[in-house]
Amino acid sequence: MSRRAPALPVALLLLGVPALASCGGDDDAAAPEGPGDEVSLGETLDPSADAETLPPDVAEATTELRGAVRTFSDALLTGDGELAYAFYTAECQTRVPRGTYLLIVTRAGEVYGEPLPFATYDATTSREDVDGEPTEVAAVDYTFRGADGLVQSDEEWTLTDDGWRLSDC
Predict the structure, then answer these.
(1) Which residue has the higher pLDDT, 80 or 11?
(2) pTM, full prediction
C-alpha cells in the first residue's frame, strides 16, 4: 500500500466540496495467507488487544475493519471530532494537528448532522512490511446512500495492536 501525501478528505468540506469517508457492504470474513496475498472482505482479523484511546463501547468495534470504518464515518458525519481523531494511527496523530482536525469535523457535523447508511463498501487487505514488520493493511472504498458526493476511494487502514486505525493522513 503506497503512502500518499497527507490529505484530509473532510477538509474539502471547508471549501464546499462534499467529500467524506465511510463504509457498508459485504460481510464475508477472510484473511490473507501470506505477504502479497490480497483478499476483498467486509470484516477481518481480531487484534490482540482493544484500543486504549477509544471509549470502551467503541473499542470492540475496532477489532473488525468494517466496524471501525463505520464508527469512524459516523463520528465524522455527526461532528464527533474526538472519536474520529482517536481512529487515526499514532503516526497520523503526529502529522495532523488535533485542533485543526476537530474544527474540520465540527464543520462536517454541521453539514450532515447524522450518520448516513452505506450504499457500497469494498475492502482489500494485504500483508505488507511497515517499519520492517509484517502488518495487515487495507484499502477501503465506500459511498453513502442518498449522498452522491460522499465517496471515499482507497482509504488506507492499518491493523494495530489497538485494532484497525486510519493510516490515510
Answers:
(1) 80
(2) 0.67
